[in-house]
Amino acid sequence: MLQKGSEQYRAAQKLANELQQIANYERWNNNNSYKLHFDPFYRFLNEIIKLNVFASNVAKTIDDRCECYGFKIANVSSKQAWVLACAAIENNIDFEECYTPVWSR
């Protein structure tokens, strides 16, 4: 559990805001942003799903409701983003690492 006001709490807030922003990229208006963020976003979701915790169920729900190559990257509420962010921080999952191509890891 993250303590309010702690460094981890602030990191989770920042990540949750970033996740919501990325999820809302639209395919047509921000085509370059959409292409840049689509695969890393779903790599991140897969990392959360592997944890087998409550956040895994949230990530699975987001993944299941995805209309691949739809209008937005994903539909993520602020509560879902917060749960994903907390799980990532608590389990040392680096969101930025999801942007590293698999072949170069």
Write the layout of secondary structure elements.
Layout: H1 7-23, H2 31-49, H3 54-64, H4 78-90
Characteristic key phrases:
105 residues; mainly alpha
Task: Give a verbal description of the structure.
The longest helix is centred in the middle third of the chain and has 19 residues, at about 30-50. This protein has about 100 residues and is an all-alpha fold. The model has no long low-confidence stretch (mean pLDDT about 85). The termini are far apart. The protein is built from four helices and no strands. Helix 1 crosses helix 4 (about 80-90), helix 2 (about 30-50) runs antiparallel to helix 3 (about 55-65) and helix 3 packs across helix 4 (about 80-90). It is globular and about 40 Å long. The protein has one domain.
Regions with pLDDT < 50 over 5+ consecutive residues? none
Number of continuous helical runs:
4
Instruction: Give the SSE string.
Output: HHHH
Tell me the major beta sheet.
none
Average pLDDT, all residues:
87
Shape verdict: globular
Class of secondary structure makeup: mainly alpha
Radius of gyration of CA atoms, rounded to a whole number: 13 Å
**N/C terminus separation:** 30 Å
Percent range for β-strand residues: under 5%
Secondary structure tally: strands: 0
Number of domains: 1
Helix content: 55-70%
